[in-house]
Amino acid sequence: MNARPRDGLLRALAPAKINRELRVGGRRPDGFHELLSRFASIDLCDELEVEPSDGLDFSITGRPVPAGKDNLVLRAARALSEATGVLPRAKIRLHKRIPVGAGLGGGSSDAAAALRLLRALWAPDLPEAHLRAIAPALGSDVPYFFTGGEADVSGRGEHVEARPDEPLAELLLLIPPFALSTAEVFAEHARQTSGRSRIPEHLEIETSGKFFGPNQLASPVLATQGAMKAYLKSAADAASEAAITGSGSTIVLFGAGAGAETQLEKQHPEASLLRTRTLGRREYEERTRPAGGAQWRSPR
Ligand code: ATP
Fold first, then answer.
1. Catalytic-residue membership of 43
2. Fewest CB within 10 A of the end CB: N or C in the chain?
């Protein structure tokens, strides 16, 4: 797959995230929930390529996701064009590997990657702060993807505090064959808590010594999709720790035993299993930095 580099072609990876702990407070006057969460980046990446063109052209390969104007890549392109006054001219290709609606933040990571790549093409002098200012309007998780790695995320997602790297963790993802709607899960959370939930001052993982702390969306996820209960039980039996990431549907296993994959494949042949690991910040920055050169990296 080492095609010859083409003039002006830039590419970057868009890594997925997991939530190691997720606390959800009440709804704010602007309709968003107050959050407190520890995010970590993982080595499961979409891939984005841009090159100069006379118009705006967008195509997707890999996992299916609608390529219409609501795709976060095109929304990011329009937002950057409006902010800079540069006409939106580019050929954009997305290779999708991150499962959609799986709590892995793939759409948000793609949006951040599109902003970085298109800035390099359209407005290389635009300060990083201006680029970051566009992020929150595209989605609550998008600001995090300008930091990556281990970070505490709060507010509706707009406050991101980078944390030092932790030892890299080997993980196993158990991905059920259905997506979950973040909006539906938050609505169920509001029903269950009557809007009275509060976020703590500190995350539990700061002191517990465990890899995962509570995910307060877990109970609404189970209520929204009953099938999640069996996946969660199987995952907990196969690893030292298992937790739903974000609003599901992916379950992340930490400390999965040698036989975990065989056992889970037998129990849930309809689900997908993926070995991955966390990414340090430097690795995150290397993967996400726009670079010229060969087309598509070889798929992992
Ligand atoms: P959320 O950020 O809502 O918690 P998630 O991590 O569970 O999301 P995503 O894969 O980011 O899930 O997708 C959520 C929704 O965003 C889907 O309904 C999908 O159609 C839409 N979407 C728009 N653009 C993209 C994209 N480039 N990749 C994935 N999903 C996209």
1. no
2. N
